[in-house]
Specification:
mainly beta, Tumour Suppressor Smad4, three-stranded antiparallel sheet
Length: 114
């Protein structure tokens, strides 16, 4: 399915609204001046305060499962956000256990890939 590539300027939060840090693993390809993220990129979460019953269980990373099937950068598939209206994004917030779906705040929608 086509989608919009995630870049270093994409704004994501964990399900509890803590900001995600997107770290591109390559600098060869960019969209609007920001490097695109590939399957080897790291998406960390900082400052998640999730603590049910007073026990800290913060989100620490987001595992992104939406990848391009046809567009590769340095042999790795791009991370893609599905088009609006096709359901939640494919980012799973992880802490001690899966916590829920990441919240997409903004993604550049000038380029689509499959």
């Amino acid at each position: 399915m086509p989608g919009f590539p995630l870049t270093g300027t994409t704004v994501l939060t964990c399900v509890h609204q803590a900001p995600a840090l997107l770290t591109a693993s390559q600098a060869a390809v960019s969209v609007l001046g920001a490097p695109v993220l590939t399957a080897s990129a790291q998406i960390g979460v900082v400052g998640c305060l999730f603590a049910p019953g007073g026990v800290a269980q913060p989100c620490t990373q987001i595992r992104w499962t939406g990848v391009a099937t046809k567009v590769m950068v340095q042999g790795k598939p791009l991370l893609l956000m599905p088009p609006p209206g096709t359901g939640p994004g494919p980012g799973v917030c992880l802490g001690p256990a899966p916590q829920g779906t990441a919240d997409m705040k903004s993604v550049p929608m000038k380029v689509t890939a499959t």
